[in-house]
Amino acid sequence: MSPSDDRLFVGIDLGGTHMQIGVADRDGTLVGRARDHTHASQGPEAVIERMARNIEAACSDASPRIDRERLEAVCIGAPGALDPVSGIVHNAVNLRWRDLPLVDMMSACLNGTMQVSIDNDVNVALWGEYRLGACADKGYRNLLGVWVGTGIGGGLILNGQLHHGTFGTAGEFGQTTIYPDMGPASERVEYHGSRKHIVENLKKLVRANHKTCLPELVAGDLDTLSIAHVAEAIKQNDELATNVVRHAAEVVGVAAANAVTLLSLDCVALGGGVTEALGSTYINWVREAFDRFVFPDQCRQCVFEPTMLMDNAGLLGAAMLACDRSTSTGT
Question: Disulfide-capable partner of 149 in 169, 273, 308, 320 (CB 3.0 to 4.6 Å)?
């Protein structure tokens, strides 16, 4: 085995609540992992130190334990608008970060022992599916990634490469406008299609005495209502839950149709907690709206692929990006 074959790569999936850290080889085999709370309220320095500590934890998780000297590069998938070239996170709302030089700070925390890069969290998840998951080895070259969870994120692959655009922020699917005459923020796709909107809208309608089985599913405690409860209500043919989720799915489908109409993409990858919880029923509703609005008819050949890697998409995609970007890879 050559020295380059022995190198390993770190992927970090950084969220507002939790972080996941994985160590993988160049083939995408996960050999060690760790998970921790983000504790964003403690400030960026504390979050960065926690990521560094959990790289050590991921090394310890492997059997046998990984020698730190084998770690070649790390890529952090971070939420929000960022520039992977400058290494700056411009605006990550759920981390309370603005114009943070994340690459420089992480490099300093690691004492320059490995190459550091960053990308948007949905970009890295999409790259994971493209390299190792649902979209791998199928001949796709131009893809839209849509991850529907608490919010809605997006990513783009054009001509087989992640597309960042002039300002490094391409793919902000959830921030596109769907209802321009509505008030600030409520005009955007994320406001109408996200898990947060689905759950909050249903709570409001239940409290307004709309007929539904949801109160029974949560034992009368609406504060515990989750997307899993919503999925169960839909399985029970609950009309209220079905109508609310179907509308949210239609918003996502229309926005996806706009993107595919504009860019003539051959695949839409769907992931995130809403997609995973609601499964094929939700995906079919998104697809129905997409087919109604996409132009021209040839674009209906665009394939919808649900995530295969699930929670591992982000950390594996980030590890693969670390490998791809490593200046030593292939030497």
Answer: 273
Model confidence at 106: pLDDT above 90: yes
CA neighbor of 329 nearest in space, from 88, 27, 29 = 27
- Domain holding 119, by residue range, is 3-127+312-325
The rounded distance, in Å, linking the Cα atoms of 278 and 273 is 8
Using alpha carbons, select from 8, 104, 18 the residue that is nearest to residue 311. 18
Beta strand pairing status for 152-158 and 143-148? antiparallel
Q: What is the pLDDT of residues 224-235, one digit of tens each?
A: 999 999 999 999
CA distance 304 to 255: 14
Q: Kindly state whether residue 277 falls inside one of the protein's structural domains.
A: yes
**pLDDT for residue 98:** 96
pLDDT beyond 60 at 93? yes
HSE of 94 in the Cβ direction (CA atoms, 13 Å)? 15
Cβ contact 272:196 at 8 Å? no
Q: How many domains, the chain?
A: 2
Q: pLDDT of 126-146, one tens digit each?
A: 999 999 999 999 999 999 999
Residue 276 lies in a domain: yes
- In a domain, residue 95? The reply is yes
Helix (H) or strand (E) holding 157: strand 152-158
pLDDT in tens, 243-286: 999 999 999 999 999 999 999 999 999 999 999 999 999 999 99
Task: Please enumerate in sequence order all residues whose Cβ is within 8 A of that of 139, keeping only pairs 6 or more positions apart, or say none.
Answer: none
Residues 285 and 198 sit within 8 Å (Cβ to Cβ): no
Give residue-wise pLDDT tens across range 49-69: 999 999 999 999 999 999 999
**CATH number of the structural domain spanning residue 248:** 3.30.420.40
Q: What token pair was written down for 74? A: 């790390």
Query: 219 and 114, same structural domain?
Result: no
Whether residues 229 and 284 fall in one domain: yes
